[in-house]
Queue: 4 jobs
Job 1
Amino acid sequence: MHQISKLAYYFVIVLIILSINFSLPRAMPGDALSYLTDPGADIPVRMTEEKREILLAYYGLDKPLSEQYITYMVGIIRGDLGWSIYYSAPVLEVILGRLKWTLILVGTSTAIYITLGILLGATSAWARGRKRDMGLLISIISISSFPSFFLGILLAIIFGIKLDIFPISGAQTAFATYSSPLEEIFDILHHLVLPAATLVLSHIGGTYFLMRNSMLGVLGEDYIMTARAKGLSERYILHKHALTNALLPIVTMTAMTVGFMIMGTIFVETVFAYPGIGNLLYNAVSYNDYPLLQGIFLFLTIAIVGANFIADMIYIRLDPRVNHE
Amino acid sequence: MKKTVLILAVLLCSMAFSASVLAENDGVAAMDSDKTVKMAGGTPGGADWGYPAPFTFYPRGPGYSRMSLLFDTLTWKDADGVIPALADGWTVSDDGKTWTFYLDRNARWHDNELFTADDVKFTIEYMQDHEGEFTWFEAINYINDVQVIDDYTVVIDLNAPMASFLVDIAGNVPILPEHIWCDVSDPRTFKDDDAVIGTGPLKLVDYDSAMSSYQYEANYDYYDGKLLVDEFISMEVGDAPAALKTGDVDEVSFWGSEIIAVQDFKDNHPEFTIVTGPSFWVLQVIFNCDADDTKGYPTNILEFRQAIAHGIDRDEIVSQVLNDGGIPANTGIMHPDSIWYNPDCAVYEYNPDTANDILDSLGFTEKNSEGIRQYPAGAERSGNVEFYLYTTGKFSREAGLIQTDLAAIGIGIYVSPSTWGPIDDRLKAGNFDMVISGHGGISNPQIMRIPSWPASTYQNSEYDSIFTAQEVEMDLDTRKELVDQLQEVVADDLPVYTLYHPYMWCVYNPEVLDTWFYTRDGIGIGIPLELNKLIFLARYGDANENGEISMQDVTKMERMILELDDESDMADANQDDEINMQDVTHIELIILGRAPIRIG
Amino acid sequence: MIEGRKILGSIGLGILTIFVIVAVFAPYIAPHDPHQMYRPMEHPSSSHLLGTNDIGNDILSEIVYGTRVSLFIAFVVSVISMLVGTSLGLVAGYFDKVGFLIMRVVDVVLTIPRLPLIIVIASFIRPSIWNLIALFLIFGWTMPARIIRSEVLTLRRRYYIDATKMIGGSDFYILWRHILPNVIPLVVVQFIMEAIHVILAESGLCFLGLGDPVAMSWGMVFHYAFECPIIYVSDVWMWWMLPPGLCIVFTVLGLTFVGYALEETFNPKLKNPFGGMER
């Protein structure tokens, strides 16, 4: 019962967001073709009223709003997200082309920052109040105070320009010919290092603190005291009890963060010229590309709501204390 | 007799030359050390210009230029002006309505099919059927009819004389292969490999929208010159100067205030070559000139606009915001590097005293405690003379300077930056006082057309009639006089007050490719970019293969033929005191027994 | 641990005090008028300690005045968010039916992809300080409302609340006298988190070019530095990009230290104090 009402609840939320998504670009000044006539471009496109109408009709933007709304909703159900006006390609194709890179970036850095965060958080909690704990705590608070774009630029200057050991732009060497797949993977990883490092450093704080706090909580619980009193080794206690129990909130938090992170990469993408969803959204906004804007929002909404839903489910599964109403 | 010998000898010579070109090409193709040229295609988020097929590139200059590497037009432009491309030569009837094009007999499509006059006829009719979908231009409806005379002769009939025909249509419309496009019903969704088959000097190998990169390879069978490169790549870079220095790319370009980076190359890296070019771009203040006082007051008063012009220090904007990476603009809009430039337009010297005097004489005499003037009693508006200055975010620094300048003459300005959309809405509705906006393509007089030129509120029937007259005027000098008049009207009436023209720079590594140049009046209809397909070609007639047609090339050939010691008159076939492609083609045409070129 | 908490808290307070002083006395501290133009792109010298920018403004003076803008936005957004969030949280926690409605709105707002929506709206509105503030407020009130509500839900069950009710205390009296004082520590911590969030979010928007170019915040100074074409290939970044960046970092750091110290004091079972821009 609980799960069904949850599903219904998410359904309503998605519906609300999709509607906001539909109306927002249309409520904003300018229309989907106004970017075409920006005279400030290197060469302005001359557009007569007739030509404008032909194009609006071509994209179905001359129809009444209600009809457009229905087309939009039906399209989503059928998996047809429409045609991007600026990119002159199916929205789905445009998004998928970039999503690949966003997922590589987000996936790698999430895996790394979670692992590191857990290790460091556990280390810190175990040494609570001692020098090691304070040292870790202060360094991580400090790193987390950096806006991710600032961190990225510093890394680019130090490792990309001064030391010149990592590339500072792109996800892959353009049209390189590789002698083996391994070489290609290496090339991709080489380009991934700095952007991923930036994301790891700017996100590690969350996991670290959560881990440290849950560990501290768990370590204070009676059963750990008992275990200690039984004379079990610290390592054993850490593995058997503390770690297992502290992981739960981390799983939840991670699931909830990933959805937001897909967009949060926009700063890293801007600094490192990394292809991704963030910059795509920025361009879609700049060019008033309604269909693309809607498509990206749909993806982000699905990612965020989906991650929330998964987090809920995991929580119910993992935590025996949550009662199943 | 001497002439016949000459012609025969030229014929032999060009055949030998072609043969050697072909032979060398085979050699190049077989060689392992392929020459690749990489160009920085833009900054993050802005290096993707769309699939380079005629209907799918993004409607911006860089998109068109990437398409134009694959597709040829009837005519093209080099550093000196219009040159033959798919058309070897052309004639125009005296009424300016009938154009006959003699097509190149060696041109082939990338799939090895022959290019013929049918393709030209098909293209124009296809474009007319899909009106509006080729977003790049609107002039296709000027064409009445296309007749194929034979495989290599095509006649285009216009509804009315069109002075800019050679540039705006012949030099702009990419010719499509009929055998591919005849089955395509929706060209905007046609993105097969076939969609990029053209006659151009390069062939598309790969395009990646997400990575914003293009990969081209040489079309060794190209009909109009020898390829200087084997591969060309346009890619996104995070930081252009760094990418050039590390050798990630071989060419980058800069614009306006980016002169800082150009200066850095000039001072610290002499191994790179710098070419300066005109941007054909102007930044301007647009005034609301609506005669209806409820909308246009007070900027619809000519003297008020003049006072503002005298109150804006354009030199300061150029030196502080552009870092001297440009020049104060021609008040008549057309770019000083264009042949249409009128140097005698009215100039409004920066002088706050003059501005103050004008404003005083208009009755804006009362000032509040902050020195802001008050509207005269009984005027359309009352209170402080204050209004919004709308602009896109990137010109907010210019707007800030104007705000300071105008405060000194008692006019209060609130700077309101936004994206283009909201400004576009305001311009269309006439709901503004002043807007700062740029305008590109000011090497082409067609840009002076009022509706396309964002001074929607300005009405002047005399101006409109001059504009229409120049559109159909086939005589270059007369047309130039008319365009001069248009510029004087703009400079006197000030519907817009132009601020500056920025420069552009192309910085490249000459060891990789040394042929970069800026096109006369811009690529196609006026794109001010350095990516002209000619940079990849050593054209016929380039005897010493320096990538430029010069006196030496033609003379060298003549000396060989006639065993002459002196330069001959023959070198300058059209007698314009310059040696260019036309001269060479002229000679070729004489040999082939065709009519000579007439430049419109 | 108490030691560490106190030290970090004092360091944080110290940093914040310095920035507040700079903001308040900016006209006396800044060596030049930030709008005055000198020779562009000057390297640091005795007359321009951090050199001049691309249009010849003194960078140090820009940063000093930028402190005002950055702190002002953060302060105003946080104060209003707390006022609105706390009131709604109190009401939602105390009155069940209203509470249900408010919480559903909170749920929706929290699920909307926040950063993309901010980017979309920010690129269409006029990027003035007040519009930015309004934009952040759309989202700012939700987290405090949710957290305050759950705290109120627990507080309500306390015996003295029932006792007060029995002797005829009005709902308003109970909320004002008994519940509000108990949630104040939470509100203070939330205030700091919101301030951190706004500082980072504002600088992020500026970095993307969506800030207010007229009111130079630290983020805008940073944005123009990043736009400079030789920022990577010369030493310019050291005096143009690093200082505003570090100002942002130190403000966030100061706030975090204070927030951390407070949270450890009020609530040893603390939650993580980091809500990055992407939330």
Job 2
Amino acid sequence: MTDVSLPPASAALQGLAFLELGERLRQRGQFAAAASVALAGLGHYPDVADAHDLLARIRTDQGHDAGAIAAWHAALECDPGHVGARKGLAFIAFRARDFTTAERQLELAAMQAPHDASVLAALDRVRSVQPVSAAEDEPRFTDPSGGLLLYDLQGMRLAGGIGESDDAALADAVAAEAAGLSREAARAARLLGLGRIRHLVLETADARVAVMPVAHDAALLLRRGAAIPIGRLLALAGRAAQAADDWLGRMR
Amino acid sequence: MNTSQWHDALRELTGVTGVLGALIVSADDGLVVAETAMDELATADVAALAAAVVSRAGRCTDAMRAGVPSSLHLAAEQGALLAMAGPPPLWLVAVARHDAELGRLRLLLRDFAGALR
């Protein structure tokens, strides 16, 4: 894994030449000077995610992980889809042997950049060293950013979200559409004599999505990046469905 | 790929163990464009139902801001319906028993769907 990324090609055009200068100083090992440039630039451009990303990489080089993490979180506040920040947070987590967090950050990066070879390679590496455990990808129904959405077949969201943000309105809209999909898939299976539906898997260029029934009147949707193997996606969805069944039983 | 090659591809798909039929469907109107299937399979129904599920899937991924579906796999207790997007509005669809070689079928569908031009 690496935390190095090239300066944005459009920086000069946008009047953000300090990004290039800071990156060059960083690459030369002049970290204090690079940090001064980055901080001065952030004074003028506090909403530029790449500037926070630059500062985070400098902090990492200086061994200030806490500062790097804060800067990458600031980058994500400016741009929730900033791949460099996700990769950086994954790098810090990986170094701390927090493989679950590293994998999650890289999966979020892969959602934004499904064809980024560096992200996919980093994901492979994290997965190759991650011990398989019961805690792996534990279903998180109460975490809207967990990529796990539980809804009833009337289209009402019961818990969770779709992963990229904690936007409740977006999650509600997905629950409404996913319920329609669940009903249509169940109808198709019944009319074709295929019996009760077990699961539905959708693939797009950016994502792989599993839809699975829960109890008799609900379903869950699990979204992951396009890099996840389908068998693993289904295994995770199966575990989540079981946990959702228990959760619904307790709720009722 | 011309229509003769389409039928060759469909025949190869139905040659996979457990596959009941394969068809090219127009997702816009749910009609069969080409098909090879066992008599027991109502291909017109398959086309209409597959198109309806594909349409719903597209609305769902659109709501998720996840792009356009390129494949769909509906697995049920007695069998499965697999669909792979070809050039719009065509989809390559197969219906298989639950014990079919779904991995191989999926790969063939992807290869043929990409060649449907």
Job 3
Amino acid sequence: MTATVELDGVGKTINRKEIIKDLSLTINEGEVLGLLGPNGAGKTTLIRMIVGLIDITEGQISVCGHNIDKEHKEAMENVGAIVENPEMYPFFSGQKNLDYFRRMDKGVTKEKVAELVDFVNLTDRINDKVQDYSLGMKQRLGIAQALMNDPKVLILDEPTNGLDPAGMQELRRHIRMLAKKKNVTVIVSSHLLSEIELMCDRIAIIKKGELITVENVKEETKERYQFNVSHPLKAQELMETHYDIKSQLMDDNLVIELPPRLDDVSEIVKVFVNNDIAIYSVEPIKQSLEDRFLHLTAE
Amino acid sequence: MTQLIINEWQKVFSRKSNIIIMVFIVGISAFFSFIPLLFNNEQAIETNTYGENWQSEVSQQVQTLQEEAETIRSQEGELSFSDSIIASTNEGEVQRLSYHLDKDIEPPATNNFFDNLVGASSLNALIGIFVTIIASAMVSKEFNMGTIKLLLIRTQSRSKILTSKYVTTLLLSLFYYGLLYLSITLFALFTTDMNPTSEYVFMTTEGLYDHTSFISYFAGLVASNLVYLVIIASLAFMLSTLTRNTTIALGGTLGAIFLGAGVTNFLVSKTELAKYLITANWSLEKYLPGRMVSIDGLTLPFSIIVNVVYVCAFVGLSYYVFNKQDVLS
């Protein structure tokens, strides 16, 4: 796995206010990374720094080995992006907009543009003016624009904005396809986990300009069970002395994290029953990424 | 770079304001050319073109005018208003025609081609306003629409993007000016009489007559008009880049255009430093033959240097800020 986007101790200060603080992150080829954070966390600022729209106050960013500051041209040759909103010239048709950007990049053919229009399903409406497009259509036109130079790194800021469920599913499919088949690195930002959870390999959670954690989406979380028993204290002691299992008491319920060596709930039930502890209920506690996100970004 | 300029050009030509401006330029040219025909019938007939023997015709005319004026002047008592107008008009005509006779230059018709072209340069102020409208939106509009991001995340450097915009602004100024003179010339071919010689006779600010070759006079006029447009365009372009606000850029430039002369004249009476103001120098028409320079210490080379320094400063500042500033819109 080769790293395509490297952020090294990146910081941004605007008017003496630290918008991004000492943020380091490496994103690999063919990986889909989600940038997750509440509104105002600094996601868009970070994205603007990666594409060189704003100066980096501290640290450095490189794309495919090219420093974004010193080798902007070389770095941008590998990047396609939508920053914030998919703004296009409203008085041009979709086709004219794409032709406009085609002229800005060397070596993009008309056939390539036609192919992209087909790819984002805009063939029927491509000759209509962009001002008559829905937000979803603008979003798709933006994606076509971003893919024009066959980028190694695709950056999509809030790409799910304005997409209907079908459009979202399609976007998800496109992104997975680009990452797996063409080995494109994709960075998507969102303030809603549910919208990007399914398309990302990893999710970086940002809060107040700081990188809180990077989580693997596929990572198995430890299973936890909640036991409602007649003698919680006794049960807790039992677990600790006999099986060396730490458990917590929560509202008279016993919460147990299952260790690998004792992964069968029935085992514990048996122990309780043998020790005359009545069991009223056993419930698995599921903590989704959503809960963790809320927990991590809570004030 | 050519591709970038094509892009910019396409954007300007898809704007409604550009279409309105072009229609307006052609319309105002037509108005300018046809209006003398509507209101000046009498005089146009009176002094028409001359035949082959123009010297004797003109001498005859001079004599008639002179006699008419003398009769009026010799009247007893106070002259009536219309009489005094006729008398002084006749005397003026006598002076002009005598100059023509003196220098052996056949006089043109009253409504002649050269005067029409020279007179049309007063419409350059209007072109200046149109150029301001386009130039003030050139950079700021991209920021307003948010499209600036799409331009800057490509492989083109910021300087190149700005250059394409500046070049387009200048080309457009030239285009508007060309359109003005193309339509003026076309209309004038129908509405005016062609001048019999290539000499252009004009009245100086002292009230005397002088002549020069029309080509060189007109070339000087066009050059000064274009210099003015370049300065206006650069000023509006700079304000648009610095403030990223079309309204401020438009208002600032129009303010300089309309208040410039007044403020300059006021400051000239206070300090000698006023001659370094761009508004004192941006019109070079005052250096045309027969015109007068009203501010002490101004010469053509001085004005050219001041203008070049200002334009370089405007453009330089635009590049510096455009390359440096964060794009947050």
Job 4
Amino acid sequence: MTATIPTETAPRATAFSGAEVARIRADFPILSRTVRDGRRLVYLDSGATSQKPRAVLDAERDWYERLNAAPHRGAHALSEEATEAYESARERIAGFIGGPSNELVFTKNATEAINLVAYAFSSGPAAPERFRLGPGDEIVVTGMEHHANLIPWQELARRTGATLRWLEVTADGRLDLSGLESVVTDRTRVLAFSHQSNVLGTVNPVARLVEAARAVGALTVLDACQSVPHLPVDVATLGVDLLAFSGHKMLGPMGIGGLWGRSEILDEMPVFLTGGSMIETVTMESATYAPVPQKFEAGVPNAAQAIGLAAACDYLTDLGMDRVHAHEQMLTERLLAGLAERTWTRVIGPTDMVERGGAVAFVVDGVHSHDVGQVLDDAGVAVRVGHHCAWPLHRTMGVTATTRATVYTYTTTEEIDALLTALDQVPQIFGLHLPTGGEG
Amino acid sequence: MDLYQELILEHSKRPHRAGLREPFEAEVHHVNPTCGDEVTVRVHVTQDGNSTVLEDVSYDALGCSISVASASMMAQSVIGAPLEEASRVYEAVRTMLTSKGSDAGDEDVIGDGIALAGVAKYPARVKCALLGWMALEDALAQSGHALRAHQATQEGHRS
């Protein structure tokens, strides 16, 4: 009760050395390829999707070569082994975020996980009270959400007549908590927010928001897409009720993600996708459902992808999430410093390392991000350009689009420097008038 | 780099006949949902004997250098042109842009737009270069005119 929740990882964790990163990179076949006429690939778009180590690719292949059968169906030997492998994957992935395996529901990605929760709140009059929303009820999100944690709630509001509200974002890219108590009120039923912004890099104050939600009896839903891959996450410490993440952003395969939820909530929560294998008994008129997590997993699951994601969790655990985090912090600091030196760039989001992760969005005033990205791409540097599925946030920050670099455990300091060097071509190509030493 | 020809940069910085003007029969607003680029296009069409003439095409483009330059080049080649001629330019630009680099374009037909030939090698940017044209096609359709004899593949997005 009196213990403060550490927001930083253990101070001892250090970034990976050059030799260590080289060893890590050797595990990722794609990192040795070239792009655009033989240029070395500098992949700085891990926030969109991460690359995959051989261990993950091997695990998926191994599933198909040795174990492939439909889990939780049939009683033949292969099916038993497949079920065991699938459930072992669940246990390892749940363990990676500090939860028991019966609290982890497999989904295809975080988007599906959030939709699953949003639909639970509009399941009709027979649903338990806390999952019945209607006029007068309020759903609260933040102004920095990815569309995946905004549109499902807009649609929920539309279906139920509830009102969507949001916490505003300040000019420096933080949540404006000054009006927290006036936004999160007795009418609030759900508070959904991202752990780390996919654009700004801002790490939100989870404890403070959970406290505000609990005080009014609202459920909390955390979009942990950009945190689970990049920093040690422990669901027990976070205190949220539900948490969504995607496997493909954390070295795992595409097509697998997860919804973690406290078991008493998942037990009560109405079903979303229905069909085979999520049932207990079925008659022509109705059905009863299997216990959690099966009741949320209709249809033959993406088992090979689940096994691949478990291998990714093992890989990250071996590296040490505290070191992965420390490595990204070091790279982000280097990138921010490099951008600060280039006074013709402007970072959208926190410019210091306080409560900040490794997504760095910036603009070059006078040059559209598509054009900036094109120059970088021509040098083999892959970044994301556009609004990064956070259009309202871009409007708030007064920009149409940004260029975003995101790092991961395999990113090198040389790659940060390659980005900065390639960026230096932008003023010349687009004839920007720089204050000093420019093209004039 | 090759993509950013001087002509593209000139058009993007000083777009030809930019701004929205009266009179007009139709106005459309198109966006590129991946990057948020926007363009508004107005058309004013008159009849000259048997010929339909694009008396004025005015526009407001907000976006990358490719999308703004392309809108500017489009205005340059279609304002005052008969519908058939505008259709010919559109067809040529479109074929060039979607050729993946195999069609270098005909400068006599395309004019300054020939500078956009390099865009064809970057499939992600083709949408930028076609944004203004797709909007023009839509605006003309709304005013009862077909910019092209046959149906275009949908490259742009209507908002």
